[in-house]
Amino acid sequence: MNILPLLSRRSIAVSSLLSFLSLGVSESHACTSLLLETADGGHVYGRTMEFGYELESEGLFVPRGMANQGTGPAKNPGKEWKSDYAVIGMAALNQDFVVDGINEKGLVGGILYFPGFAEYTSPDEADASKAVAPWEFLTWALGTCSSVEEIKAKIDEVQVIGLKVPGPNFIPPFHYTFHDAEGKSIVIEPTGGELKVFDNPFGVMTNSPTFDWHLTNMRNYVKLSPENVDSFTVKGTKVDSFGQGSGWLGIPGDPTPPSRFIRALAFSMTPEPEPSGIKSVRLAEHVMNNFDIPYGSIRPAGKPKKGEFDYTQWTAIVDIENRLYYIKTYNNQMLQSISFDDFDLEGEVAVKAPIADDLSVSKLEFPN
Description:
Oligomer: single chain
Distance between the termini: 51 Å
Number of helices: 7
Structural class: alpha+beta
CATH superfamily: Penicillin V Acylase, Chain A
CATH architecture: 4-Layer Sandwich
Number of strands: 19
Strand content: 25-35%
């Protein structure tokens, strides 16, 4: 069974984001996202968040009916919108926008790094009434759209503009992944000053290069398979493989984005499906463990400083059918959940909550 046949805000003052935008010195190249199908036709989304700088991430709830305004050219007001749908997910650096989340209709989305290739609309050429900053786009999409098809229909209503900040003079290079309750997926990448939308039948995304390049690169791995390779005979002598997993011989194991894309494709397409609920969540967790990056295992050349070691700060697993968002951190591998049932979905302000990141270990209790 080869892989190939299986593939069938609100306004945020720019000055308050200086610390975020100055993170270019520790660019994260290692986020991985994917989608699993459950045994009953549901879907579970997983993604890792890698960064060298501490993102101080928190859980975030954004209510429906909330008034939002994007950041426009020259730090002026940009696009205005009102959230139609409540959103739960993760925030970063004490800001009220999601970097990853799900809305009440089951639309899931995430921001991933896209260094060297992101090309936003120039502020000089932007329509201020449509303008949002790169870090605001995901909150707009999840707050106003119920499906990937609706995102496609509304994509011309928004422009993601490149905002330079005095000092670091850095624009965060992002691209975006989306999945809906029907299992449809798209990737949106800012290239050539426009938002390019790709249908993504595989549900997998990593980082640079562009999504279409990753699709072409898949052709290098058409012989990979979850099935063990049969023995063969040479001059009357039978030759067997060393053991289990021979069908995966040649699968790339390094942490570069192209290699992670292929591994994510392989490991998301081939596990035995579990029904929607905690079993499929646990399955997705096992799959995502393949992309966990220990602190210090990736570093810049020379003598790196503190804050320059990319590592997996957290991993999110989303049960799309049940609208449950789970998170585990580098220090705390116990899943913590966020549910729409915990909130009044109508409201005017966003609500944040800290994520437990302690190093405690539960003791195994033996009977007396």
